[in-house]
Amino acid sequence: MTKHRVRTVERYTRRTRWYHAAVYITVLALLGTGWWLLTGREGQPSPAARLTGVADVTLHTYAGWVLTGLTAVAVTLGARAARTFMVESVRVDKGDLRWFIRWPVAVVTGRFSHHRGHFDPGQRVANLVLVTLLAALVASGVGLTMVVGGPGFVWLQRVHRWATYLITPVLAGHILIAAGLLPGYRGVARAMHLGGRLRIDTARRVWPGWLDRRLAEDDEDDQQPRPAGDSPD
Ligand code: HEM
Ligand code: HEM
């Protein structure tokens, strides 16, 4: 850990932060154009369509291919990170139930129950729901670009619509929490923005087990043998 005036700790690397930003800009564009189409305004161009001169369906499909590409990057180039993400999202430790029981009050007071994960137990559930629904949206969305009419189209459209209904409140919840708007989560937005460093007190409040491991890693790095000559061997 570098010595800053306010002690901070790196939570996510620049690569992860840029990947997350690319995903959310794309997903927000898909939600915007998707809801525009869903509410039956297909004939009426949205402000984005008027600005670009491209129809909403086309804008949506372009953004859909971008998200499909980003998904492909996650499972190929980002396979190791994706695996760690999944392993950390399915973990269950003793005490996680107590974390959930205390959560509704802790979002206001900041007094979360201890947990050991990289993600808190609530994030783990949200991650699994998000991955499942995004996978359903990408699969059914790609299907919709290939099938024209018939029962297949109707079925794909049903999956695509339901996944949209379900993912919208989950994403709204994620943004509310991750933007640090609730008092208990104040300061967490910096994990993914403006350098990816958290204040130590924020990290201790929200991710105590992760922080202990992270600080222990830094101590180990500090104790690495010095360059030739310095080491007793
Ligand atoms: C966050 C992800 C996504 C959301 C929230 C979303 C949402 C929606 C919604 C609400 C509709 C309108 C459905 C209706 O009118 O019944 C729609 C249509 C559609 N979506 Fe998506 N979508 C997403 C991702 C994708 C992806 C990855 C693709 C694939 C390239 C895609 C391709 C399409 C297509 C082809 C249509 C049909 C357009 C039409 O002909 O009416 N979507 N989407
Ligand atoms: C709309 C699409 C978005 C998707 C699909 C998405 C997805 C994710 C996922 C899967 C994570 C991993 C851990 C977690 O569940 O917290 C994450 C973390 C995070 N997201 Fe998002 N996100 C989106 C939008 C946003 C927005 C708009 C913000 C802005 C405030 C944001 C801020 C964060 C932050 C600060 C973290 C780090 C939390 C941590 O340190 O573990 N996200 N996001």
Automatic annotation (TrEMBL):
Domain Cytochrome b561 bacterial/Ni-hydrogenase: 11-192
Any single Gene Ontology cellular-component annotation: plasma membrane
Main localisation: membrane
Annotated GO biological process: respiratory electron transport chain
Keyword Transmembrane: yes
InterPro entries: Cyt_b561_bac/Ni-Hgenase (IPR011577), Di-haem_cyt_TM (IPR016174)
SUPFAM superfamilies: Transmembrane di-heme cytochromes (SSF81342)
UniProt keyword list: Cell membrane, Membrane, Transmembrane, Transmembrane helix
TM stretches of this protein: 21-39, 59-79, 125-150, 162-182
Membrane disposition: Multi-pass membrane protein
One Pfam family it belongs to: Ni_hydr_CYTB
Gene Ontology MF annotations: electron transfer activity
Location of this chain's protein in the cell: Cell membrane
Domain of life of the organism encoding this protein: Bacteria
The protein, known as: Cytochrome b/b6 domain-containing protein
Organism: Kribbella pittospori
